[in-house]
Amino acid sequence: MLAAHGDHMEQADVVLGCDGVASAVRAALQKQGAQAQQTRYKDRRPIVYRVMAIPTGKEDRTDLNYSARNDNVIVEALPNAEGDLLGVVLFRPTDQRIQGLKSGAEAKKVFQELFPDWPTPLIPDSEWGNFASRKTRELPQFAFAGPELNLGGKCCLLGDAIHSVKPFFGLGLNSGFEDIAVLDQCLEESGDDFAVALPLYSRRRAPQAKCLVLCQRRFDQATDLKFALAFVLPLVLDGVFRKLLPRVFAPGLLALFQDGELSFTEARRRKLRDRVLQALILSVAFLAAGAVSFFLARGVLRGLWRLARRPLHAWLHHELL
């Protein structure tokens, strides 16, 4: 099979398309007749970012994810091989406090107002200047490819080429590693016969890629209220029911995704079952509470009616005599 390499073509027995959201390999598969269409979703609540180098203090741990948030600006920082932190500053495209930065002094002033405790005191003046001059970049859109991820036994797609999600929950890179693991398992099961292994991989991973993207996209809501209903409320319900009946109810959907015991589709089915049980239990509880309230209210009204009637009867009896 021919594969593009720079400005020339290479001959290869098998091509693995791991070339990201705008995959040229995926486009080539479609031209060859594979049903590898990409379904891409417009952002409901666009977020952009700039990177920032954050030195660590003498006593700071470098095995943790650091995070700070203030007024719709978020700083996420992960350790790198050198021990410092690679920071990502997330913000809205319309936020001119960061979009409109023209100097390091302006950047430092904005961060002193938003994040006076961390990471601002750690940042040297040179980095403020670098941050102000860096380009603002967009996060990838939610997208998935399928229903075919291969072209016979000659080519298949992995990673962001088949599923693109926001980097909020650590599932983008991890799901790419899982693609590799599944492909390896398919090769083992087929005796390294690519003609068998790649279609098998496609059948197994295409539904998982779609499920991953659609489930995570539900959390990307346009307003705080919709986000609370789509993410916070289910999280609270799962926490309460999990604590009351841990043998019956599973953790939240993201926890199931991150745990890796179940596939994405299996986790979604499990959580749908939990939602049905939760709805039934809550419905019964509301009906029971309504029935108790009705009978209590009826008893109180009857008691008040009896109390109101007694003076009237006594007055009539006195007047008639």
UniProtKB/TrEMBL annotation:
GO molecular function: FAD binding; kynurenine 3-monooxygenase activity
Keywords, sorted A to Z: FAD, Flavoprotein, Membrane, Monooxygenase, NADP, Oxidoreductase, Transmembrane, Transmembrane helix
Transmembrane segment boundaries: 276-297
Annotated organism of origin: Effrenium voratum
InterPro entries the UniProt entry points to: FAD-bd, FAD/NAD-bd_sf
GO terms (BP aspect): kynurenine metabolic process
Signal peptide from the UniProt entry: none
Superkingdom of the organism of origin: Eukaryota
Protein name, entry field: FAD-binding domain-containing protein
Ranges in a coiled coil: none
Cofactor(s), names only, from the UniProt record: FAD
Keyword DNA-binding: no
Limits of the FAD-binding domain: 11-210
